[in-house]
């Protein structure tokens, strides 16, 4: 009796399994995949030891103006007045604790939906020019100059303008020379816009066009735009060195690198592009194989750089991105069945900020495992002994007292 029952069970189980698996397989074969992923060869992530040893120092951060703003990606200050751009397209001024919307590059109505971004705009990188004007990189509209007092907005480089025959698709970050003459900025993709940044990360491939804009230079006097570097994948944060002899460009996801850049295929790369001196026009590696996916980069008071990580590659531990790197069929399956919002929920909310020395070595790191206090850190901006923490999703600005960490 028991033998017969077990046979019946096995047959029933197998029948059910096949009846579920076959249609599912058929559906996944027939469904379109929005991305065309290519295998990525990654180095093993660096061990989180020494100055990278996990800690909970980011949990000491205060949450400022909680639920009064959403997704303050980049932060600048003029004196003690702070400015930031938010997910609903606003450019915000914070003075004496009071929040005021001074400008909006796009047009409403605007909410927090991904679909709203294209019309509302998404201010990302922000800098202060020599005349205390704000320079803003909007992901959808382009490069702008904003008067912080009147809110008057001036378009410098439009995403509709053809540059070497192509339009900008995902304007991301910028850095400005002290004299305000040159602005260096990144265009993260010629295929994907900001709302589809996860596709950009997961695809990790050439999008089929001859050139992919990466680092560009805008001359505020001649109004000319030059393409300085092409072929990077997800060029993101950008920062001039203290001496302004080179620009650092963060490449969030590994991609094929043009040979002339003398770089191999690595995941988390910061390129140094020389803009003056003996190596003018040359590029080399600054930091490779970082412990996370670098987002924005800003100067530290020690002469080095603060780098915020959009996600972490734990070692020891499990890194989803590293696991999927060469498994293109799994990536296809995932994005055939799941939305970007759903996939995002599987990315650990581990927050990490590192300080690099002027030569690119790690000086210290601040962690918040599981993103308890601050999550999705996009930028670390140092001002007056504090680290102001931007985030592309959180509803507040974090502030960390550097004297007490």
UniProtKB/TrEMBL annotation:
Cell compartments where the protein resides: Membrane
GO CC terms of this entry: endomembrane system; membrane
Family note: Belongs to the strictosidine synthase family.
Transmembrane stretches, start-end: 12-31
Main location: membrane
SUPFAM superfamilies (alphabetical): Calcium-dependent phosphotriesterase
Topology within the bilayer: Single-pass membrane protein
All copies of domain Strictosidine synthase conserved region, residue ranges: 172-260
Database matches in InterPro entries: 6-blade_b-propeller_TolB-like, Strictosidine_synth_cons-reg
Entry's Gene Ontology molecular function annotations: arylesterase activity
Gene: Apmap
Protein name per UniProt: Adipocyte plasma membrane-associated protein
The keyword Zinc is annotated on this UniProt entry: no
Keywords (A to Z) from UniProt: Glycoprotein, Membrane, Transmembrane, Transmembrane helix
């Amino acid at each position: 009796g028991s033998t017969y029952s077990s046979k019946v069970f096995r047959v029933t189980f197998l029948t059910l399994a096949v009846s579920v698996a076959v249609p599912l397989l058929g559906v996944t074969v027939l469904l379109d995949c929005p991305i065309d992923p290519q295998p990525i060869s990654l180095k093993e992530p660096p061990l989180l030891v020494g100055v990278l040893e996990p800690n909970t120092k980011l949990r000491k951060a205060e949450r400022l103006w909680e639920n009064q703003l959403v997704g303050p990606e980049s932060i600048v200050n003029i004196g003690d007045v702070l400015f930031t751009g938010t997910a609903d397209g606003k450019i915000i001024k914070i003075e004496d604790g009071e929040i005021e919307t001074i400008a909006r590059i796009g047009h409403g109505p605007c909410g927090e939906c991904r679909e709203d971004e294209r019309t509302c705009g998404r201010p990302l990188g922000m800098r202060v020019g020599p005349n205390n004007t704000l320079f803003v990189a909007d992901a959808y509209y382009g490069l702008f100059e904003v008067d912080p007092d009147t809110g008057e907005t001036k378009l410098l480089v439009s995403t509709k303008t053809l540059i070497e025959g192509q339009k900008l698709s995902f304007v991301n970050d910028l850095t400005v020379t002290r004299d305000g003459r040159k602005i260096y900025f990144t265009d993260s993709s010629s295929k994907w816009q900001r709302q589809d940044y996860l596709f950009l990360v997961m695809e990790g491939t050439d999008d089929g066009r001859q050139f992919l804009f990466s680092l560009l230079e805008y001359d505020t006097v001649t109004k000319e735009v030059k393409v300085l570097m092409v072929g990077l994948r997800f060029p993101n944060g950008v920062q001039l060195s203290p001496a302004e002899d080179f620009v650092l460009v963060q490449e969030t996801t590994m991609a094929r690198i043009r040979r002339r850049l003398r770089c191999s295929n690595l995941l988390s790369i910061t390129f140094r592009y020389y803009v003056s001196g003996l190596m003018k026009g040359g590029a080399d590696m600054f930091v490779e194989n970082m412990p996370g996916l670098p987002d924005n980069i800003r100067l530290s008071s020690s002469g080095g750089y603060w780098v915020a990580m959009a996600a972490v590659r734990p070692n020891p531990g499990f890194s989803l991105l590293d696991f999927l790197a060469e498994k293109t069929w799994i990536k296809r399956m995932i994005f055939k069945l799941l939305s970007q919002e759903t996939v995002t929920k599987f990315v650990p909310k581990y927050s990490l900020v590192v300080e690099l020395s002027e030569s690119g070595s790690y000086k210290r790191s601040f962690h918040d495992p599981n993103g308890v206090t601050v999550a999705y850190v996009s930028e670390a901006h140092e001002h007056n002994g504090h680290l102001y923490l931007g985030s592309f999703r959180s509803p507040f600005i974090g502030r960390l007292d550097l004297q007490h960490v």
